[in-house]
Amino acid sequence: MKILASDYDGTLRTEELVDINDVHAIHEFRAAGNMFGLVTGRSMESIQTEIQKNKIEFDFIVANNGGVIYDRDFQRLQVLYMDFNKALDIIAYIKTLDCVSYVINDGFHRFKFSVDENQIDHKYGNMPDTNEHEEEVLDRGKISQLVVSLNDTMLAEEISHYINTNFKGYAVAYVNVNCVDIVPEGVSKAEGLYFIEQHLGLEHDAIYAIGDSFNDIPMIEEFHGCAMMHARSAIVEPAEHVFISIEECIAFLMKL
């Protein structure tokens, strides 16, 4: 049995909808006795919608870059939360930035707040601001992830460096497409996959991970790493294999 853990945006989903050939390949892969899971920076609320819209079959979901884990029946296995006071400090810092918006994730739901409405929001342009006031969201006292939407790659790298330096021990930031993902210290896609490995009793050597962005590097390095051909060199370099699609990746795994 082989296990394929796939990033979502930029890997399985490269257009508005997931390619039907990839969907069929996943079906055949699982029908042959293998397992397929999604490992994403998205919230559970978001990825569940995508799964249902694209009719993706799966065996597990690792969301929030590893901090939120669900099984094939959408039953929660784990949610990790940020230190609340440190999260408030990070939100205060975000509000000083030249960013478009930020999103607060409570472990399942996400709440968007605009910062500069004059900028185009490439990350969350189709997502309206929440109807709730920020104080109402914060009164819940639980934050599992913060996402900063912005249009400047250099600024994204600066934000990531600032968070990883000034909030070391409390939070870790990953540069992603048009955004920076901020999660509790110790959270990564690799750690999320290690949880799945232990929870399901899987063989480490049977797990393959594929992605295309910086937040995918931990799982690419820790498991049999695969990268998308369009990924930047920093993502491709540690990978054992490079593919143009999930369909091609699965075809390779089915021959092993």
> Under the CATH scheme, which architecture of the largest domain would be assigned?
3-Layer(aba) Sandwich
Low-pLDDT sequence parts: none
Number of domains: 2
Secondary structure: helix percent: 25-40%
Q: Major sheet, described briefly? A: 8 strands, mixed
Report the principal-axis shape: globular
Sheet with the most strands: spatial strand order: 5-4-3-2-1-11-12-13
Number of helices: 9
Q: What name does CATH use for the topology of the largest domain?
A: Rossmann fold
Sequence of secondary-structure elements: EHEHEEEHEEHEHEEHEHEHEH
Proportion of β residues?
15-25%
Kindly report how far apart the N and C termini lie. 10 Å
Radius of gyration: 18 Å
Q: Give the class from helix and strand content and strand pairing.
A: alpha/beta
CATH superfamily name of the largest domain?
Answer: HAD superfamily/HAD-like
* pLDDT averaged residue by residue: 96
The total count of strands amounts to 13
Question: So what's the oligomer here?
Answer: single chain
Per CATH, the class of the largest domain reads: Alpha Beta
